[in-house]
Amino acid sequence: xxxxxxxxxxxxxxxxxxxxxxxxxxxxxxxxxxxxxxxxxxxxxxxxxxxxxxxxxxxxxxxxxxxxxxxxxxxxxxxxxxxxxxxxxxxxxxxxxxxxxxxxxxxxxxxxxxxxxxxxxxxxxxxxxxxxxxxxxxxxxxxxxxxxxxxxxxxxxxxxxxxxxxxxxxxxxxxxxxxxxxxxxxxxxxxxxxxxxxxxxxxxxxxxxxxxxxxxxxxxxxxxxxxxxxxxxxxxxxxxxxxxxxxxxxxxxxxxxxxxxxxxxxxxxxxxxxxxxxxxxxxxxxxxxxxxxxxxxxxxxxxxxxxx
Length: 308
Description:
This is ISXO2-like transposase domain-containing protein. Residues 133-281 form the ISXO2-like transposase domain. It holds the Pfam family DDE_Tnp_IS1595. The protein is an alpha/beta fold. It has helices at residues 3-11, 14-23, 81-92, 97-104, 108-128, 189-199, 245-260, 266-283, 289-294, 297-300, and strands at 32-33, 39-40, 42-45, 54-57, 64-66, 134-135, 140-147, 165-171, 178-184, 200-201, 204-208, 223-228. A hairpin with an 8-residue loop joins β3 and β4. α1 (3-11) runs antiparallel to α3 (81-92), α3 (81-92) crosses α5 and α5 packs across α8 (266-283). The radius of gyration is 24 Å and the shape is elongated. It starts with a helix and ends in an 8-residue tail after the last helix. The model has no long low-confidence stretch (mean pLDDT 91).
């Protein structure tokens, strides 16, 4: 779905919007009444001023329920269906929250809450459809850690209370490279080696810098070979050709995204990393990411669950 299709949908009758959302399993089609032995509820038209235009009503017990019952849209009842759909579209295109708010004339705080909820969906989807383990025979993976603290400009302003480190494992099987990123409290072998063992398939070749925690990686059962580049001497080893440029590139893209957001709270950082992982592994190209993301919704919201 592109922006023109979305705008045309918005300009058409509301029935077309509801029908499209039902076709994508984003709204119930139809809603069932649990009190009347799962009797099919009827969709009735509301007065012209209501944000949805329709509601569900059971012909048996006369119970009424919102058109959004059991759906993602139920969490934001005062925002129109089309506006929420456009927020989802701009989110998948990685537009800034400020731009989304200005384009749709919504408050920044509301857009932030919607986007945070969409990030949570990325996190849950990664749990339900794990991206790990990866690698394996003939695969080269690269490991590194990076500090994700804001920097005080000209040594002025507030400084972080504690350092925030992110550990990344990148596989070069794909172009651009894809990876797994997680916040770690420590950068020692006791912390990093179990993560590496969890993420890699047997037979993986691992490239790292000379950080001490990686010293005994070759002893891990799923690592067949470990090669090291000493960054104090060179970024690409002139003899072996070993480097960690792909993971450094990932750090650069992740930190650029944080810079666009003007920073992020530590408690929200893992959700940001999960979103980045979902985009790498599940998003697809720019023409498919909207549809791929919409396909995640039915896994989280069973819209056809009988209404209480």
